[in-house]
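The instructor's notes for this session suggest beginning with a concrete chain rather than abstract definitions. Hand out the sequence below and ask the class to guess, before any prediction is shown, which regions might be ordered.
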Amino acid sequence: MKQLPGVSGSLICGAMALLFSLHSSAQSVNPIQSSFNQYRQNAPVEKVFAHTDKGAYLTGEIIWFKLYVVDGTWHKPLALSRVAYVDVLDNNSVPVMQTKVELKNGSGYGSVYIPVTLSNGNYKLRAYTNWMKNFSADYYFEKQLTIVNPQISPAAYATQGPAYDIQFFPEGGNLVNGVATKVAFKAVGRDGVGIDFTGAVIDQKNDTVARFKPLKFGMGSFTFTPDAANTYRAVIKSGNAPAVTANLPAINSNGYTMHLTDNGSQLTVNVSSVNAGSDGDVYLFVHTGQQVQAVKYVSLSNGSAKFTIDKNQLGEGISHITIFDASRRPVCERLYFKRPTKLLAIDAAPDKQQYGSRKKVSVAYSAKDNAGNMQNADLSMAVYRLDNFQKQDAMDIAGYFWLSSDLKGNIESPGYYLKDNSADAAEAADNLMLTQGWRRFQWSDVLSNKQPSFSFLPELDGHLVVGKIVNTATNTPGGDVVAYFAVPGKRVQVFTARSDSTGKLLFNTKDFYGPGEIVVQTNTEHDSTYRIDVQSPFSEQYSKNTLPPFMVSPDMQQSLEKSSLGMQVLNLYSGSSIKKYRDAPVDSNGFFGKPYKSYKLDDYTRFTTMEEVLREYIHELWVNHDKHYHIKMINEAGFLDDDPLVMLDGVPVFSMDKIVGLDPLKIRRLDVVRDRYYWGPAEAEGILSYTSYKGDLAGLDMDPHAVVLDYEGLQLQRVFYAPVYDTDEQVASRLPDFRNVLYWSPSLNSNKQGKKEVSFFTGDQEGQYIGVIQGITADGTAGSQVFNFEVKK
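After discussion, reveal the predicted structure:
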């Protein structure tokens, strides 16, 4: 066997080429590795995980969430994007809730209110960044949420079709005539959960050629030798349900197969070629998280080849093992999972196991590495009541980043594969690799060496608002046109953009928070034939992952009634408390900073016309009237050339006639910048910024060419409602407290000094409660922990 040493992804392609040139027999492999590294460097990967406060909700409740954004290789918090998008989709991929969340150093949090008009069903919460929109929606974070509307009776679930579904996956991807092959399988019920069953593979003579049953979560494997002269089908039986028959994958008369054997410290990969060339070289390429770990090649002998891989050479997590033929075409591929040892050990425990109503709960927590050393970690914690409706959420941050984010479809209990180091768990993990493997790229894209083109930029500073400008006279894109994006209000928020040849506009906003109106326009004094369309920032591509049917069992009725009562009481008696938001930390100054001079009109004798105000009080300008009004700014060098940029409550107004026509009694302040000012692609001959008393444009009629629409910036952070019962008077309050989420904090931090503590109070709801705390360190070590206690009167 000839071997190329594994190459660290931190080396540049030129260094790799030098390394390969030192081994003349390795030249044939170099193009694969070089192309792969070039592709990886041009397409950085982001991953997002969302920790929600729970997994089942009623309409009228609030979904609280914390987002963790990491790089796709090392899982370290990534500060590439400053904005994340969160959608809640129904079963038809129609958005029912959407929001934008600010990110800081790969972390952000927010909430969404569930409308009381929403229908019963399973929904999909997904999270992604603008950069992630360049890739398949299968890479977005997705999580199933169950939402029940207490005012709508659940529809009867139609049980048409088979009670379960089974699929088969040959190792390496192919069944080839005459070659013994490992075949993995996965069987799930209507709820998407793996089932227990027995099965057999039967040929056309009804002879049984293989028997099988799952090891864990409906998954397992068996080995058989396919004969192209025969036809095969699988029959499975689960409980009292009718037997289900399924076809096996097609049998090829020629092609390649691969089989991996774990020998403890080494992996052996056997490759077979049938009628596809018995001689020549085959290549093995291994990468973990798109970091190259091993590149080898060997010559076929009688249609067979054998590779060995030192497991110490592989990175932790999922490795992709690909076989290429002599023409460097990928012919087989499978995944291998190396259980990670780098997990964050979170310790969290309440000070008691049982509490009365309205009692203080103190939870001590810390985070440690494998060696037991205290760690600084970014954490989030939720404490909620468990019942027949609200079950423990099986999704956790470590399981998602190590497994779910790199596999296809739903992964049942991903934490099992990380925390259990038994032989059965290792075999179950390999079944998972065989049944749900995929990759984040197409080899044809990699090997073509094409420079990737991306339609969506990373939002490095703030939310990017995208628009398109069209010349209505010619119905063609308007290129090289400056446009203005403004948010009306007392704080000046104006952003500019110049359109490209396709008419695309890109407004790079900053500190743009909350819902409201926006005004988008060109300088209509010069560009009156243009129309601007503002595009939705939310992704319009959707994954192929389906949601299981919505089902409410009879044993949930009492829990749902109790939860419904709690939700109604909370909204009725504490409605104002759950609608409080924190002020956004923004600079109140306009984009132009400190003005040359600021005029507070109440400090002067009030005139009845704006022309008198400008002529009598504002010494930094000159007003001229010849059919239309014009204003010229004056500085130490003299007059500037053209009308200044004039804004009213942050909205540019290009008609000086409208400015002079303003009612000065509605204007509180006028800020003056007397010098030429450059703001992005826009050039202003000075600036006049009017602020009205109400921030409502003082009754100004907007230009009909301007686009005025509702648009929400980054979400304002809602305050989590958590009543305090420190005093006897507070405890004796007759205001009912039926909360089922006692505590939510998206911004806990552990440190290296020792344990920290949080506290909260129980409510009036008895029952079992669970706390879930999870998070990640700066070096990408993730983990989670749960704790339990009981509330009993």
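Then share the key points. The radius of gyration is 32 Å. The first helix runs from residue 13 to 21.
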